[in-house]
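User: Round two. Same drill as before: sequence, then structure, for each protein.

Assistant: Same drill it is. First protein:
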Amino acid sequence: MSATSVLATPARPVALLELLLPRLTAAHNVLLVVAGSLFVALCAQVSLPLPFSPVPVTGQTFAVLFLGAAFGARRSAAALALYLLEGALGLPVFAPGGPPGLARLLGPTGGYLLAFPAAAFLAGWILERTELRAWWSWLVAVLAAEALIFGAGVCWLRAVTLTNWPQAVQLGLLPFLPGEILKVALLAAALPASWWAAQTGVRRDAERRRPLS
């Protein structure tokens, strides 16, 4: 399977982005993947180190959830894979304060980072198979992606720091719950509203173009 076929846009809109931009070509998708990776890098710069944990509070998870829900499974996963590649090559795309390059991926936060492509894919995959775009379907998608990120992150953190499970959860999950709940609530409210508004606009545009009988 070629890269062009992987990034080709399906005939039926399955992601919010495809509803807004229905005539995407493979070249457009490549540009969107690059833009998505840069968006994650930008959100990563919003970082708050925690003195009691090796894991900082960042805007990365918001970017991952947004891309997965808005870009679709394959496109968002490709954007996150590119983001990790950029970071592994030493580009300053990770949150400030930690080691650069591959050392970041092998460090305490590596589990969270390495889970990003799969989490974005999972969110997009769930929504692509939900015909009725009710608010709960968006909520399920972002919650599943969050669970994957933090599940992988806490397991990796425990293995790298040689802590027990309660300590790993205390260091890698509990401090982040308030912020993640806020992110999930924001996305679960804003994304369904955006989908409804985009669908309404598409229908009105189609009605205006329909020839009079």
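Second protein:
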Amino acid sequence: MRNRHHQDTTPSARGAVAKTPIEDAETGFLKHSPSGVPYLDWGGQGPVLHFAHANGFPPGTYSSFVARLTDRFHVLGMEARALWGTHDPRQPCHSASPAKNAGRSSESAAATDSPNRRPQGTGAWVQGHEYSSMSTERSSGPRRAEYSPAQFRHWRELADDLAPFLGELKLDGIIGAGHSLGAVTTLLCAVANPRLFRALVLIDPVIVPAQMAPVVAAAVSLGLSSRTQWPVGARRRRTDWPDREALYRAYRAAPVFARWQDAFLRDYVASGTVPNSAGGLRLRYPPEWEARIFETVPADVWLSIPRLRHMPLLVVRGEHSTTYRRDAMRFMRWLLPQGTFVEIAGADHFVPMSRPEETAAAIKAFVGQLQSE
């Protein structure tokens, strides 16, 4: 039996965390918003926490990390625009839009439309966090115009996808969390839509040191960023593999995954691949999207950060991270003295994958403090 949680949508007193309108869900259920945006609903008990994923890594990659949070939070994770339309076409991917559900019963409609019921976007059961391939129905994807990587200009566009998604699910006053790219898009979304969030959790955000920002901005403006390590590597990445074990073995030996706990790499292999029509598997995350996101790193995020000075936030850095450097963290701490800043020993940029227990504990302690105020 599912437990039903109710949300108070009125402005909450300072220190209170919004309740969730979402009932508990089975772990690993791929669903779609009313307009067709895919997301994972890991379920859980407590306030809603939305977790935004990093570039190149679908939200299913974080399932073993989220499992450490669902005793305290109801966790959702929207798939970023780069992943829309990349699911196995043989799985059922239904939208909850009126056109697709015109024949549903009034009871079903009420379940979808009531703010005190869980969103009824439906999708495919993800067995063990893997994408199912049991149906022949093709997903129509989000009801939005086709959008190519070449048209993409700023990470703010991804933040602009998150706000209407949360609105579709009738969520506000939630905890907004994210890793890497997801941390920055959550930050930008909160600056533009502060009522959507009660607090932020930013895990090793992609924020260049302030003194490097003019150089990065010039490189992006002149198109020189496409020649840097990460976009070049994304475009060269092998996308087709004979099977999951071959992909797992290759990635297990790669230095970038050296600190990853094994369960996370297994989750990535399962959630990040779909069957290839020619046989074998292919990576779901399109290389052109991954490269384009890397080459548009926003140097101007420092202009947005001071606008969060009244927002409770936790910022987590990996001790060995070269993405969110210690000098960037010091300056951000100076700009946001109300924030809580934590450095996780032994972690690199992939903090949730290498130190999941410590990261989850930091989040729980931070939110627990908010609830006690």
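The first helix runs from residue 63 to 66.

User: Perfect.
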